[in-house]
Amino acid sequence: MATDSPKSEARINFRLPADLKQQIEQAAAHLGQSVSEFAASNLAQAAQETIREQSVTQLTNQDRDLFFALLDNVDAQPNDALKTAAQNYTQQME
After folding, report:
1. How do the domains of the chain map onto residue ranges?
2. CB distance 78 to 86 below 8 Å
3. On the CB side of 14, how many CA atoms lie within 13 Å of its CA?
4. Is the pTM of this model over 0.70?
5. Which of 33, 59, 80, 82 could join 37 in a cystine, given CB atoms 3.0 to 4.6 angstroms apart?
6. Which residues form the signal peptide (predicted)?
């Protein structure tokens, strides 16, 4: 039994140069896709990559070493803001 794929309801409309539209149509045809399928697939991939890149913090080796050195500092004492945050957390968990 065939299942229906979810119906797309959202739309994106934009203008682009005619030569770029022709390239997109040609690329879609090479893949056996409609222009809409090609555009949606590539836009989704670009969106996911952008979100991933913007969600990750990359440190230089020097920054990484400093970060770990600060974590390893056993003599460090919590400041007032950290103490207050810990108290608030404890109260919320009770």
Report:
1. 16-73
2. yes
3. 9
4. no
5. 33
6. none
